[in-house]
Amino acid sequence: MRRRRAEEEEEEFEAAELLPPPPPPEEEEEDEEAAPPTCGKGHRSSLVLTTAEGGFICLACFSALLSDHCSPSHHVSYALSQLSLAIRSPAFLRDLRTCHPHLLVPPLVRALAASDDEALARQLIDLVSDLCYRCCGGGSAAAASVSGDFIALITDLLSSGALAWSRRQIYMLHCFGILLNSHPNDNPASHIRDKDALFSNLILGLQLPSEEIRGEIMFVLYKLSLLQATPWDEDDNDHGDTDLSSTGERLLRLSLEVLLKTQNDDVRLNCVGQCHLLLTAAKANASLHNDIIICMACIQALVQESIADYVFEILRHSGSKDPLVISCIQVLTLLATAEEVFRQRAVIGFPTLLSVFRYITEIPLHPVQSHVLNLVWTCISDCPGIMSMSQVEETALVLTGIFRRHTSGELGMLPETFTLACSTFVEILKSPSACHVLKLTPAIQEASRNALILSLTSQEYPNELLLYSLYLLKEAHAYSCEESSATNSGSKELENSVIETCETYLMPWLGRVIDEGQDEEVVLGVLETFHLILLKGSECQSRKFAETLACSNWFSLLFGFLGLFPSEQMKIRVYLMFSSVVDRLLGTNSGQPIRDAHVYLPSDPLELIYLLGQRSSHDLNLASCQCAVLLMLYVGTLYGDRFIDGNQVLASLEQYILVNSNNFSCGIAGSMMLTELVHLYGLVRGAPIGYRTAYSPEAEKAMFQLIAENEWDLLSMGIHPAALKWLFQQKGIMKPLSYQILNFCKFYSTTKTQICVRTNNVQTLDLQMIAELVVSEDNYVGLLLVSLLGKAVEEGREDDIMILVNVMTGILNIFPDTSNQFCLLGITDALQYLCYPRQSPQIFIHCLLLIFNILYSADYGTLTHGQDWLALTETMDWQDFLQSSNEAHMLQVLCLRCHDFCRLIHFGSSLIKLVASQCLVELLTRISDQRNGKKDELRCSLRYLESMMAVTEGLLFYGDTTVATNCAVCFSIILGWEKFGLQEKRAIKDSKWCRLVMEELAMTLAAPGLASRSFTNQHKPAARVAVALLKLDQVPGWMKSVFDTSSISGIIDNLSASNMTAEMVRLFTELMTRKYMNKEQVSALHHLFQVCRKQVYNDSSKKQPREENHDIVVSIPEDIGKVCSLLIHLMLSPPMDDHDEIQTEQEILLKEIEVFFQQSSKE
């Protein structure tokens, strides 16, 4: 029979007990004084119990009916059913339990022992179970012994062997098993009178071929083992001649035999449970009897006989049935103690184990959760290659889910489960397949973070759990480093996650250690984790982590740990980690002085600075310690971590300088130690707060002497801006500082493209720091730069000139306002010398860039102070912009020459034409002004000029008036240079294009309706060209025919005061000068110009005053189009005169009219 049926029946009983008892019938309440019922056979009335339905049951008759073997089975069945119904009544059960609790035990046992009817036997078993259950519910000692009486009588029959091995035995075993399972708290084993005989018969029964009998026996044995009711569980050894060890071994082998043969899941479950209990008992007894070797040999033999394989197979077919899973896992846990043998079997059963692992992890506090984790961990650790890539990913995700669920607030996790989960995850990371799983990195990030959170929030086992979470965190970081060297896939994200976890959770926890108190082992574990990140991490990430530590008062915290845990182990860890932080902050091996001296260094910071005041000329160990102390003070002070009071630091430094100043020349020259000393001294002196204002002038003098007489490198390590500023404010060390500045300029010229990392207040000397010093104007950096440039120019050191000019240009790019300071410091003296053409092309180019930046940024008042900048601009040769691109030239710099602008004018868009033509006008004007002043000859070819003329004259008809006017101006300027020979002059004379332009101009002015449409409103550019042609030494002959008397008269007749322009007045002036007009025409123009001048005056008096020209501010980069439009507008605006006023068109017109009147008076 099946045990599950018994358990289901027990559940039914439990459910029934919860239901309220049926109310007593009304007759029972009303007829309380009725006569007691009597039995028809004359049995005592005390044996007759009234039922709830009004009837009665005679217990004597009931016992006789059951004891009579000739009683019909249906009578017995009816009686049993009536009694089963009756005991459900509280009143009946109370009477039975009070007066006759043991009367029914013998007849029921005899009936069960004699029954061959399965239905009747099941009815008897149900009644026995129900009766024991309900009688024991009363709580009295007599009632509680009812189940004991049943167990005693049943075990007596089973021990005697009177039943032989028949179906009656099966029913008896089934009933015994139900009683053992239903009443474990009543000490059922105490009612067994002959355990040896019972177990002997049960073991014999296991050898029978009946699977049903073996199943019942296995259940009974399993329950007895759980109740520790076996002969070997007794405290005494008085068992006669029974060999307990051989009996247990025999039972174990028989259990395994049954397990191998049965096809029933219930039997398998009982067998597995029995094997587990027997193995556990054997292991315990071996420990007690120094027989552990024999026990392990037995377990190894079982594994070799493929028991583990079979248990794995049962697990595979278990269908996640909890009882079977629990028993199998317990057996496997014991078999796993045979490590070498079990390892071979684990490879086969590992996939099955993983499927069970998924199942049990989804159930909080599953009874074998830790056992399964232990088996998985054992398999992975003993056989590293056992896992495939898919299994690695699956197992990692399951473990990640465990940590995630418990972090999110589900039921707690047992400490053993947590530690095994961490250990298992670590073994996964060490698996050869792990590095090829792409989805493993996110799981590692989440698991390591959640495991740490769980351990930090644990109230019961914080230290133990934290050590294991740190173990997982360290392995996660090691995995990221190994993967980085292999595939570089996700390693950066994982390393960032580990460091972020440390910064977010561990660093605040460490800050509370000193106040709350923790075990030294845990603190050392956290420090070891941080140390590992610094030693093994990537360069970039470990440096960032070191900077985070340094900026979080890390060094003060380390010395706090030394005070809390003054052990040698903590001291070594603190100083070695201090050195590793220094390595990452200042560069590789920068912390070596600390590592060299850590054995001799004291734990108290006050004792550290005491060492500085000692003379170390003859003590190498003391000198080594002093070097380490200076380094630690330098780094701590550099990052604002004052683990020693600032006043004490300054006093100790001054004492160190005074006592050991004579020893520096032999040991410190060219080393990092002097640089550390200079930086540290500068910082404590330059810090605005926190240090005493009083200092030792004698120590300062000795310090300045060290700086001046010994070699040291300002660039070799990071420096605090306060220290840097203080150093450059000291006039007494200007000379050595100028050498350091020059070294920096040399360094910048070769590494200026490198990115300098600036963290908080700790910086390696870079251009930004130098620029900040210059712009602050409270130090000598700007003066040193200008002085160094002047001296380099004076001595002709071209390399130094180049690097100094580059640094100054870089400073101007960062802070344009520094241009004013450079000007006031006299930089123009050196620049005037550098701008002469005799300098090398590279110096000349870089000098021009520097000049451009200064002119662009400096204030107007600074530039106009004195005549230095005016003289500087006159040194520039504008004719260099006439060079052809095919000719070699010294200006190897990005610039646009005249022919480049011509190309832009010809091929560019309308906007490009506008900008390029205006630039060409300015450039040609500068060239003309310089030639007129110096009387220089043009240094360009004739064809070069002709090409520019061809482009500019071709755009005289362009639709944009400004572009056409600019081209006319350019054409006129080139004509005025008179660089042409006879042939070229003949070409101009015969130029059909120029003649066409002039004819169109004359026709437009004389008869506008007859002019070409493309020439409308384009008389201004053409008028400028006409003036230029008339000013030539040899005016083309066709000009006389174009502007003959009739043409000029027509033009004058068509003019009025309202349409007069300055270009027309200038044209008439030139025509008059060339005698192209007669007196009548000049007189007519006199009258016309007088009217025009009067009208201009009248119009000017009526107009509103001219508005001031306010600056226009455009938000950048809100609208780049607006910015471009503003720049073009400013470029095209007319230049200002000396009074900062812009001449209007009317004013220019009046000026030209006045010139005409003056010229006519001469004629």
Question: Low-confidence parts, pLDDT < 50 over ≥5 residues?
Answer: 1-33, 235-244, 666-670, 754-759, 887-893, 1107-1117, 1136-1141
Quantity of strands, as a count: 2
What is the number of helices?
A: 57
Characterize the main sheet: 2 strands, antiparallel
Computed over alpha carbons, the radius of gyration is 55 Å
Large-scale geometry: elongated
Structural class: mainly alpha
| Terminal Cα span | 148 Å
Helix % is 55-70%
The oligomeric state of the chains shown is single chain
State mean pLDDT (0 to 100 scale): 79
The order of strands across the largest sheet is 1-2
Strand content: under 5%
Topology overview:
Blueprint (H helix, E strand, L loop, with lengths): L2 H16 L7 H5 L17 E3 L5 E3 H9 L5 H14 L3 H10 L5 H10 L3 H19 L4 H20 L6 H16 L12 H11 L5 H16 L17 H18 L3 H24 L3 H13 L2 H10 L5 H14 L3 H23 L7 H14 L6 H19 L7 H16 L9 H18 L4 H25 L4 H26 L3 H17 L2 H12 L3 H11 L3 H19 L5 H6 L7 H8 L7 H19 L7 H15 L3 H4 L4 H15 L10 H13 L11 H8 L5 H18 L15 H10 L4 H15 L2 H17 L3 H7 L2 H8 L6 H17 L2 H5 L3 H6 L24 H10 L2 H25 L7 H12 L7 H16 L5 H8 L2 H15 L12 H12 L7 H5 L2 H10 L7 H12 L5 H24 L17 H13 L12 H18 L1
Antiparallel strand pairs: 1-2
Helix pairs in contact: 1-7, 1-9, 3-6, 4-7, 6-7, 6-8, 6-9, 7-8, 7-9, 8-9, 8-10, 9-11, 10-11, 11-13, 12-13, 13-14, 13-16, 15-16, 15-17, 16-18, 17-18, 17-19, 18-20, 19-20, 19-21, 20-22, 21-22, 21-23, 22-23, 22-24, 23-24, 23-26, 24-25, 24-27, 25-27, 26-27, 29-30, 30-33, 31-33, 31-34, ...
